[in-house]
Specification:
The structure holds two protein chains of two kinds. Chain A is an alpha/beta fold. In chain A, 44% of the residues lie in helices and 11% in strands. In chain B, helix 1 packs across helix 9 and helix 8 crosses helix 10. The chains are: A alpha/beta, B alpha/beta.
């Protein structure tokens, strides 16, 4: 008798990969649930039957999931889908047959940048309110509550997901070729990655193991891997942008954070504002103030042009000319990921779920390169025509 | 239904057949925005959906669930239904005496496509195909540059177009090889295939690789060789629903590279050979701005063709050539070796 598994959000990267992986396992009967046809082409190529499900339709979810043994939730969307949709899914599992629930979370629950203590999952999770990590944390809390009520659940926390078809790695590659990426401090900081096939294996372990109670597990590759290593792995695919320019962290932080005014700076700034054309025009609306301003200006003029100029310069300051040089816009969001600096560990997943990492980081990127060259026709004579310009 | 002679300046009376996603976002607004066309009726197998579409735009026209039930005077039809229904519905509409603008592809096989073209010719009715991007300034300018050899002869070209997700028809017909007439080559690639034939001529030799197993392909690579009046031109295209590929067309010419960033824009760029930081932007005459999008331009070209009795800019024959090219590509299909990367089959 096969174990019947429902995969919600099956058309996404993780969902599709898990469905393809699990289909090869005889003991499992996989049913993929998708929301929209536009994203399901990868699964459709196999001829696998797809079912449509709107997770916001509580009744439809309950009916759809009633007869499965386990549910894997890979769904993503806006906050409504992620929160109310998950409520409906958990409710369906609790009311119906499903005895096991695996939820895909994210290391983002620990914040961005993450809590420095979050080498393991027991560190406090403090994402920014309203952020993606905050929504994922709320999801985790819902799953934990359902576990406390008897639904055997586990939460898997991957970082950026790599491997064949990885949109993340494709984006990094595009950023390198476009010249918008920089290696901070020479790229020496650790980067957390997980090959999608390792994550699929982790899902399988979570479905099989008995020791699950709503806990969260990091699923990350444990071997040392820096941002410089990542760029080296992608270099053979880059038509330009290599070597990736380096940038000191301090220079990058100045770019992304607003400047802090000094006390003197604040006073000068206030005075400049007061004598600006806009403020004076507003003050002149008042007849008395207009008269005072006129008298003041007359008095200054009587002192002579040189003094008037010196007074003006004392308030407004000298003409400032910033340094400029041609430079592409930087991919700040991607570069900022290098500031995370925490290497999460999958030790608890290995000991409690029986998870083993099947693909090394190097193998993952070797397979990505092979896939990319095959799918993007990188061997063709026209490949060079499409170099980013 | 029947139509009145198109001698007056009154707007062309159009029935919109199909009330799905493309009708909602493209054809309905094009008809409503045009001064030369007027919506006469909407037909959809689900009449309630047709009524919803009209309500969304605040339009009060009759709706029907079958074209044979339409009982208002009409001149032409716009057909926006799943691909496998294009030919049968267009045939019925032509036989009812209406000019037809049908969404691409013209049909899912050459037999039906040829029959449609022949029928339209015999009835002296306009048959136009919905390759709307050809109406962009960018495409017309690119055509001019290649034909005139303004920057030298065309040598090679490359095109990429991929989106993970994106267009999601309400009927989900894109997930059925039968209903769509193929996979991503048909749903995404036919606009470019039309341009290949239009710009360079029908290819003498093609190659095709895709990732289909049982269902429709989600990713494919097509290669072309054309021996035209200007010499041999080779090209390749990648269409994908699994890799995000910003749309881009590049044509290498003797003096540099012509770049068309998006096929719906009204300009292209020329980058002279040997330079990295100089590019010329070649656009339409900006003294006469044209705010119409490509769907409206397509519709108004169709209306004008109906009025004056000329072939539309994208004719039934053009649609037939694309159906033929799709069949030629599928006929020489080779599998992309994606199984190597499938989860569980690589050797770690």
């Amino acid at each position: 008798m096969k174990t019947k598994i429902a995969v919600i959000g099956a058309s996404g990267f993780v969902g599709s990969s898990f469905v393809e992986y699990a289909q090869s396992i005889d003991e499992l009967e996989i049913t993929p649930f998708i929301h929209r046809a536009g994203s399901a082409a990868r699964l459709a190529r196999s001829g696998i039957e797809l079912k449509t499900l709107d997770v916001l339709d509580k009744q439809a979810v309950a009916k759809a999931l009633a007869s499965f043994d386990a549910v894997v939730n890979c769904s993503r969307g806006g906050s409504q889908v992620m929160l109310y949709g998950l409520d409906n899914i958990l409710h369906a599992c609790q009311q119906g047959q499903p005895k096991r629930f695996v939820h895909i979370s994210s290391v983002a629950v620990y914040g961005d940048p993450p809590n420095p203590e979050s080498v393991d999952e027991l560190a406090p999770a403090n994402p920014l309110p309203g952020s993606y990590g905050d929504i994922k944390l709320k999801q985790d809390q819902k799953v934990r509550k359902a576990a406390a009520q008897g639904l055997r659940s586990v939460v898997l926390c991957p970082p950026n997901i790599t491997g064949p078809y990885s949109g993340y790695v494709t984006d990094v590659l595009s950023s390198i070729e476009a010249g918008t990426f920089r290696l901070l401090d020479g790229g020496r900081y650790e980067v957390n990655t997980i090959d999608v096939r390792n994550l699929a294996e982790a899902i399988l372990c979570a479905l099989r193991t008995d020791s699950i109670s709503g806990e969260r597990y990091f699923i990350c590759e444990d071997e040392p891997f820096t941002w410089a290593d990542l760029c080296r792995e992608l270099a053979p695919l880059c038509r330009k942008g290599i070597p990736v320019p380096a940038m000191p962290v301090e220079e990058f932080e100045l770019l992304v954070q607003p400047g802090v005014a000094t006390a003197n700076g604040r006073s000068a700034s206030a005075l400049k504002h007061l004598v600006s054309d806009e403020v004076r025009a507003a003050l002149r609306q008042n007849q008395r103030l207009a008269g005072l301003e006129k008298a003041f200006r007359h008095g200054i003029a009587l002192m002579g042009k040189p003094i008037e100029t010196r007074l003006q310069r004392a308030v407004v300051g000298p003409i400032r000319v910033p340094k400029v040089a041609p430079a592409p816009a930087l991919g700040v969001a991607l570069i900022s990921q290098q500031l995370r600096k925490v290497k999460h560990s999958s030790a608890r997943a290995r000991s409690n779920l029986g998870y083993t990492q099947k693909y090394s980081v190097r193998q993952s990127f070797e397979d990505f390169r092979s896939w990319y060259e095959c799918f993007l026709d990188a061997g063709s004579s026209e490949w060079s025509l499409l170099v980013p310009r | 239904m029947g139509h009145v002679s198109l001698t007056s300046d009154e707007p062309l009376r159009i029935v919109l057949v199909g009330a799905g996603a493309i009708a909602q976002v493209a054809h309905m607004p094009a008809i409503l925005a045009s001064r030369t066309a007027q919506l006469g009726a909407v037909v959809d197998a689900d009449a309630a959906r047709a009524r919803e579409l009209c309500d969304a735009y605040g339009i009060d026209v009759p709706v029907f669930n079958d074209i044979d039930a339409v009982n208002v005077p009409l001149d032409a039809a716009v057909v926006a239904v799943p691909n496998h229904l294009h030919a049968p519905l267009a045939t019925r509409l032509l036989r009812n005496g209406l000019h037809v603008l049908v969404e691409k592809p013209l049909a899912v096989d050459q037999t039906d496509a040829r029959a449609l073209v022949a029928l339209a010719e015999s009835l002296e009715l306009v048959l136009a195909i919905g390759f709307h991007t050809r109406h962009s300034g960018a495409c017309r300018i690119l055509k001019h540059c290649i034909e005139s050899e303004r920057f030298g002869r065309a040598l090679r070209y490359a095109h990429r177009d991929g989106s993970v997700g994106g267009w999601s028809p309400k009927s989900s017909y894109n997930l059925s090889k039968h209903d769509a007439g193929g996979g991503v080559l048909v749903t995404t690639g036919t606009h470019f295939l039309d341009r290949v034939v239009w710009l360079f001529g029908y290819p003498e030799h093609v190659e095709f690789f895709d990732d289909a197993r049982v269902g429709p392909e989600s990713h494919c690579i097509a290669r072309f060789e054309t021996k035209g009046p200007h010499g041999q031109v080779t090209g390749s295209a990648v269409f994908s629903k699994v890799v995000s590929l910003p749309e881009s067309t590049v044509v290498e010419v003797e003096e540099g590279v012509l770049l068309m960033p998006r096929d719906v824009d009204d300009y292209i760029e020329f980058i002279p050979g040997g330079t990295n930081d100089i590019r010329y932007r070649i656009g339409r005459d900006s003294s006469v701005p044209d705010p119409r999008n490509c769907y409206q331009r397509q519709l108004e070209d169709f209306v004008d063709a109906c009025r004056v009795g000329r072939p539309p800019f994208v004719s039934g024959n053009d649609g037939l050539q694309v159906v033929r090219l799709v069949e030629d590509l599928y006929a020489c299909r080779q599998p992309l070796d994606w199984h190597r990367f499938a989860v569980g089959t690589s050797t770690p």
